[in-house]
Every structure is written in structure tokens, then in C-alpha cells.
Recover the amino acids of this structure.
């Protein structure tokens, strides 16, 4: 009886799921016009950047919608893992560029700092939380990886910028600690801690106010797609936990690599690293 009730509820949610037609999509895009007008009237100066961003979003998401359909149908473990590696690579490239740091020296450390926590967290999510038989299942593996990498990318950018900004401002303190016998890691540890606190603060605030201030994307997407709200809530809770865990672990690894690669052989801050490649 209970199973029949759950099936009826799921059918009701599926029937109430709202699709977006082509005309609806075009009407939604019309909102860009008044947005551009407001930006122009206020002389904010980022109309061109907005148009480029919207154009890239449409092209990129259009391609994603097409090729993910075939990746999901193929559902090949090697293809799925290769796609995850590409996602991590592009995330690492974007993170370094947006942090105004030299690409060549930090690309591999950043790639590693994002890849290792992401793989561990994805497999833990699939094996222990969702408990699916096929841990490389494309329609779970890829979306969850995308969610984690998107959030990890933002925190890594903040962490890197904060770390090197603090290291520059507090360079005299760092040198004083070195002169008094501290190792490079010991002298730079306060910068690492402060950078992590700064990077993780938005995640903490979001977690503390979820459900009161906002309904996050995973939960909203599932509800709009016709899922049971309680199922959406359970997924959202788990997703926020793994995102926070993954971001924190990735930030720690990223900054440990930054300490290793951001200073020269004499343990002095390598200021050439701070300029764009």
C-alpha cells in the first residue's frame, strides 16, 4: 500500500513538472534587453562583457545539452572518467588565470589539488551515500562532479588570491619568523589559515541559511523536474556536505602546493609568480 502511495505521488510530481518551450526560452532571453539598458544608463561599463558572457553561456550549455545526452546513453566508465579529467583540467586553468598567477608553474599542482579530492568524494558519494551498483554511472558521476568543481573553483580562486595577497602584505612578519628559526611552512601557516577562512566563509554562510534565505540549485532543479520535495531535500543536504568537504580539502592541498611552489630556494616569496603569464 505504501509503495502504491509513493508511486502515485511520484506520478503527480512528474505530471506537474514544467517544461520550457522555445518561445518561453526566447521570452526569458528578452530580459537581457532591459538589463543592458540599466547598465548603460548607470554607466556601469560591462555591457560588452555581459553580452560575451551570455553568448558563451548559450553556446557552451547548448553543446553540453547535446553531448551529455550521448554520454549518458553510452555510459562508458572510461569515457566518463576522461570527461571528469577534462572538467578538472579546465577548472584548474580557469582558477589560475582568474587568480592572476603564472600558469606554467601552478597548473599541475592546481590540477592535482582539484582532482584527488574530487575523485575521492565522488566515489564516496556513489558508494556510501547513493549506494549505486555502477559507481561510474554517467548521469550521477558527471553532474555531481560538475557541482563540486564549480564550487571548488570559486573557493580555490579566493584562497589563492588571499594567500598571496596576505603573503605580500605580511612579508616582513614572514621574514621575521624565518629569522627566528621558523621553517617556511611554519612561517607561512598563518597566511594559509586566513586564506582558508576567507575562501570557506561564503560556503558556511550558505549552509547556515539554506532553506530560509534561498532554495539551492540542486533542490530547485529536482523539484522543477518533478521529484518528490523530500527526495530533493535529501540530495541537497548531501550535496552541500560533499561540496564543503571537497572544497576544504582541495583548498588545503592547493595552498600547501602554493607554499611549496610560491617561494624560491631561499624561502623568499617568488613575486614573479604573481604576475600574469
Amino acid at each position: 500500500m505504501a509503495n502504491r502511495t509513493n508511486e502515485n505521488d511520484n506520478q503527480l510530481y512528474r505530471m506537474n513538472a514544467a517544461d520550457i518551450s522555445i518561445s518561453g526560452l526566447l521570452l526569458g532571453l528578452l530580459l537581457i534587453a532591459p538589463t543592458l539598458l540599466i547598465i548603460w544608463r548607470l554607466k556601469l561599463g560591462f555591457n560588452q562583457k555581459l553580452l560575451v558572457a551570455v553568448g558563451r553561456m548559450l553556446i557552451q550549455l547548448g553543446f553540453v545539452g547535446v553531448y551529455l545526452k550521448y554520454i549518458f546513453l553510452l555510459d562508458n566508465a572510461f569515457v566518463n572518467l576522461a570527461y571528469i579529467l577534462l572538467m578538472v583540467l579546465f577548472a584548474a586553468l580557469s582558477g589560475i588565470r582568474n587568480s592572476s598567477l603564472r600558469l606554467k608553474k601552478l597548473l599541475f599542482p592546481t590540477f592535482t589539488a582539484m582532482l584527488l579530492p574530487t575523485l575521492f568524494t565522488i566515489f564516496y558519494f556513489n558508494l556510501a551515500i547513493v549506494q549505486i551498483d555502477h559507481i561510474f554511472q554517467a548521469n550521477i558521476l558527471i553532474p555531481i562532479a560538475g557541482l563540486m568543481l564549480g564550487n571548488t573553483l570559486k573557493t580555490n580562486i579566493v584562497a589563492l588570491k588571499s594567500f598571496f595577497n596576505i603573503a605580500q602584505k605580511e612579508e616582513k612578519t614572514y621574514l621575521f619568523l624565518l629569522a627566528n628559526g621558523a621553517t617556511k611552512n611554519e612561517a607561512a601557516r598563518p597566511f594559509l589559515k586566513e586564506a582558508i577562512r576567507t575562501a570557506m566563509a561564503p560556503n558556511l554562510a550558505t549552509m547556515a541559511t539554506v532553506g530560509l534565505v534561498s532554495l539551492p540549485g540542486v533542490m530547485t532543479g529536482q523539484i522543477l523536474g518533478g521529484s518528490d520535495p523530500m527526495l530533493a531535500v535529501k540530495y541537497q543536504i548531501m550535496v552541500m556536505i560533499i561540496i564543503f568537504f571537497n572544497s576544504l580539502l582541495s583548498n588545503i592541498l592547493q595552498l600547501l602546493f602554493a607554499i611549496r611552489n610560491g617561494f624560491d630556494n631561499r624561502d623568499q616569496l617568488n613575486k614573479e609568480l604573481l604576475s600574469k603569464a
About this structure: Confidence is low (pLDDT under 50) at residues 1-5, 8-15.
